[in-house]
């Protein structure tokens, strides 16, 4: 009811929708500024408010910009936005919990089947690995810096990170990455290439990471280029 009030005129009649405006390179600077500001505001907030009512947003924007009296008091607007934010946060937490349980079940099933495949070995931590190329150089310690090429995938085959795609290897201290990497790379020798199947509890766990949902089992193909 509160939001609906925001799209009404003072006499209670619904305003008609504003006609769409065609923006081109030949549009005036004023038109381009207006369009650019509106587009960037929307693009920057669409993830935060995915179910935004564009009609009431436009009315509120116009009223605020043109100095009209707001349809809601300041206290009402703050309460509406606070309540909305709280509801969205609760929904996000519930969604993440559901995804975490689902991914945990899928990951366990994947690892159970994967363990039966030829050449796959498993350590006490649950880390599974397969030797693709046996290296001939030295093996790293957890305190060493390593140079590697790698590709990281989810169990559905989605690639979420790859030094191959970036066109250059990466260096990092081996004790500053996920536990599955710290353990797994110490099994390798320079020049080796392994495939690792890493359970969530020695990957990113329930927290997940950018592009990685909570409790995701990960697959990494790793080439150990150099131990430094």
In CATH, the topology of the domain at 120-227 is named Chitinase A, domain 3
Broad CATH class of the domain at 120-227? Alpha Beta
- The proportion of residues in beta strands is 15-25%
Discrete helix count: 6
Largest sheet: 7 strands, antiparallel
Helix/strand/pairing category: alpha+beta
* C-alpha geometry: elongated
- CATH architecture descriptor of the domain at 120-227: Roll
Mean pLDDT: 90
What's the count of strands? 7
- The first-to-last residue Cα distance is 65 Å
What is the H-and-E element order?
Answer: HHHHEEEEHEHEE
Low-confidence stretches: 1-17
State Rg: 27 Å
Helix content: 25-40%
EC number: 5.2.1.8
Pfam families: FKBP_C, FKBP_N
Family: Belongs to the FKBP-type PPIase family.
Catalytic activity: [protein]-peptidylproline (omega=180) = [protein]-peptidylproline (omega=0)
